[in-house]
Amino acid sequence: MTHIKFNTMAGTGFYTSCLSSSSNLGTCWLVLKTHSARAVPGKLPGRRRLTIKAEVEYVNAEKAKELVEVDGYTVLDVRDKTQFERARIKSCYHVPLFVENKDNDPGTIIKRTLHNNFSGLFFGLPFTKPNPDFVQSVKSQFPPESKLLVVCQEGLRSAAAANKLEEAGFLNIACITSGLQTAKPGTFDSVGSTELENAGKAGLVTIQGKISTVLGTVLVCAYLFITFFPEQAEKLFQMAPTG
Questions:
Q1: Where are the transmembrane segments (predicted)?
Q2: Surface-to-core class of residue 14, CB atoms within 10 Å of its CB (0-12 exposed, 13-18 middle, 19+ buried)
């Protein structure tokens, strides 16, 4: 135990005591204790105990590279399987925050159909749901004191995953602000069919030039028109020349 005393005005002061636990977590307690040079009858010195809690560190891609190469951080990729297979940091671990939703209840079927006709069609994204085993899967592979760099494509899933791991007791968590889409080619050693920054691009949005915008707009408008105005759409099809 270490005591540090601070003198203040009017003969009062306070000191801190830092207790380091011998457990693997290395928990440190910061104890603030006040006292007065004059005795106050019927009152004991006030005392307050605070816990020092680790916070997630948000860094850019270059700093993240330094954390891995110099500070020994392990990369934990929380993207879905499709993005992970397109491009990933070499020697990373993969525990997806979301997994493909294959449930077949009526509500899920409707949502999956709508998703596949929009996000799935234009961005190549699978229909997913939260991974109920995410935290437990990470715990089974890493102790709480592990240094983990949590990554995803845009930075949103990694931030959510980091928050879950912090709440679960992990002490050294870092994330790339705005995700792997900000990593320039060559920043990390990677494997896959494309660069890390392009792993989120699939479906119709990969068509280059103005055709992607025009085609996407036409298909969306056509789909909405057929869905919400089926009778009018049928009449238009009947009016179309058959050749």
A1: 211-229
A2: middle
Where helices occur in 19-100 by DSSP H, the ranges are 61-69, 81-86
Write out the E strands in 66-138. 74-77, 87-89, 93-94, 98-100, 128-130
Q: Which residues of the chain have pLDDT under 50?
A: 1-51, 209
Residue 8's pLDDT is what?
39
Q: Please name every residue paired with 35 in a beta bridge, in sequence order, or none if there are none.
A: 13
Hey, which bits of 86-221 come out as E strands?
87-89, 93-94, 98-100, 128-130, 147-151, 172-176, 190-192
- pLDDT, position 103: 82
Active-site residue list: 152
Q: How far apart are CA 164 and CA 221, in angstroms?
A: 39
96 in Cβ contact with 131 (< 8 Å):
yes
pTM: 0.62
